[in-house]
Backbone:
């Protein structure tokens, strides 16, 4: 069992071990923007590479694309982001602090439930659930806040502005002589880069419906409430795939991708009991969606979305067709018919996925009266997969250890370490999530040509011959199960 009761534990570990740092920290930091350190960048790349391989190379009908962050401003008109990509915000007039109105209400519900006022909590929850067809969401949320006398968490005041909608896109000037008209947006999702390349890919690759286009890349959102570490960031990375299907087959494809994506989360070692689906109620669907479901993970802050799976219908292609004037339909030669494909989208936040992996892997254990902190993550994700140590800093042992390092480095990420006691070296790599450690000792060079392999999860140790190290690691990865 994980004994993680707060995100703060992960924030501290991530900083102390060089996974994740606050951006521009020496200047006091930049809110909701983070940098990945040496261990973090390896973990990030490992997750990204696994996703890429699983989504593209393991599906012969899914190809990749890498679109630019900047896109023609019309893209965001077509997608509905200029009109509708808003968060409802409300300001406390006393403290001048800004809150996301729906989150303010959710926090109030949580506090009521904690204080045992379950009926009142359920009543407000019901109001929140039924609030807003999207048009009058701001007014509905305002009414809930006023009628239930929800106070500002920081000042305790009950002195609110109206709820206003706040567009989440960052706008910037384009070119040296830019005017208002030259404004471009930093993309708030990678998906639109896929839609605008759909025709290029159809014309140049040997794909036919059903087929998918996958992309990973940065997205930017000026989140009103930016907190909870890398869970909600203003600059983050998405891994998205749009699967183009014939209308009428979309429900089946949606069900298939739901299944596939949940299996993917389990395949990267996330414990089943910490994963679930949460369907979006029909009246809360995004403007483009016919159906939507979140894959949620049980974070220390509660069940939260890690990935969204959406049936986007033909909304995006039809919109781009309308605004660009270019035909974006598909000709099905076999059946001699034309249609605009429907799209099933899978969209996962890479940073949120990293947070999920860290939370799921984190354990504190007591070993011989001392605390052991260990990240029991899937060996394929581990930033350092193998530690190689000479028992002591002595010629003879060092050369053999260096030779093992040189051989393993062709296949795994390896860390050679000869400083400190063996126990300390194990602990350091336990905190980095390293699943295997190899120790060369005097018996290795004097008597048996064997090394000790130590397994991270149960700390068990075995003597194995030098020529069986690579095999033992390969088997260890293959047989690994979350514990
Ligand atoms: N193209 C669809 C789309 O962007 P979304 O539900 O808004 O859908 C998809 O975002 C995923 O992107 C989310 O499930 C989440 O993992 C990630 N994400 C969204 N906003 C984020 C933020 N501010 N910080 C970190 N990750 C975010």
Residues:
């Amino acid at each position: 069992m994980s004994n993680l009761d707060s995100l703060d534990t992960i924030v501290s570990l991530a900083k102390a071990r060089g996974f994740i740092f606050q951006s521009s920290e020496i200047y006091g930091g930049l809110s909701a923007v983070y940098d990945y350190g040496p261990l973090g960048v390896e973990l990030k790349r490992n997750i990204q590479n696994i996703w890429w391989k699983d989504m593209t190379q393991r599906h012969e009908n899914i190809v990749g694309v890498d679109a630019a962050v900047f896109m023609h401003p019309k893209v965001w008109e077509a997608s509905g982001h200029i009109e509708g990509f808003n968060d409802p915000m409300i300001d406390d007039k006393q403290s001048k602090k800004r809150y996301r109105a729906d989150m303010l209400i959710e926090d109030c519900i949580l506090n009521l439930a904690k204080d045992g006022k379950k009926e009142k909590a359920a009543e407000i929850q019901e109001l929140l659930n039924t609030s807003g067809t999207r048009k009058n969401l701001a007014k509905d949320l305002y009414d809930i806040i006023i009628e239930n006398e929800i106070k500002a968490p920081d000042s305790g005041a009950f002195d609110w502005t109206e709820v206003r909608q706040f567009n989440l896109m960052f706008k910037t000037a384009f070119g040296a002589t830019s005017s208002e008209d030259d404004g471009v947006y930093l993309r708030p999702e990678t998906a639109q880069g896929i839609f605008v390349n759909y025709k290029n890919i159809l014309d140049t690759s040997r794909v036919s419906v059903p087929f998918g286009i996958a992309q990973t890349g940065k997205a930017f959102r000026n989140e009103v409430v930016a907190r909870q570490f890398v869970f909600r960031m203003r600059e983050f990375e998405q891994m998205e795939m749009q699967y183009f299907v014939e209308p009428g087959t979309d429900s089946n494809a949606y069900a298939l991708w739901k299944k596939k994506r949940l299996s993917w989360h389990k395949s990267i070692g996330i414990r089943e009991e910490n994963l679930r689906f949460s369907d979006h109620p029909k009246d809360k669907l995004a403007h483009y969606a016919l159906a939507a479901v979140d894959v949620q993970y049980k974070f220390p802050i509660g069940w939260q979305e890690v990935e969204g799976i959406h049936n986007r219908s033909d909304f995006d292609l039809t919109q781009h067709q309308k605004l660009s004037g270019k035909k974006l339909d598909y000709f099905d030669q076999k059946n001699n018919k034309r249609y605009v494909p429907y799209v099933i989208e899978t969209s996962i936040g890479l940073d949120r996925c990293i947070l999920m992996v860290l939370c799921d892997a984190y354990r504190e254990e007591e070993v011989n009266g001392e605390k052991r902190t260990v990240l029991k993550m899937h060996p394929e994700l581990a930033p350092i997969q193998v530690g190689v140590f000479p028992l002591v800093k002595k010629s003879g042992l060092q050369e053999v250890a260096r030779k093992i390092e040189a051989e393993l480095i062709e296949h795994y990420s390896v860390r050679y370490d000869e400083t400190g006691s063996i126990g300390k070296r194990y602990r350091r790599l336990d905190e980095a999530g390293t699943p295997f450690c190899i120790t060369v000792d005097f018996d290795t060079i004097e008597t048996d040509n064997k090394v000790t392999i130590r397994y991270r999860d149960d700390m068990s140790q075995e003597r194995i011959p030098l020529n069986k190290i690579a095999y033992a690691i390969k088997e260890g990865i293959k047989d690994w199960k979350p514990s």
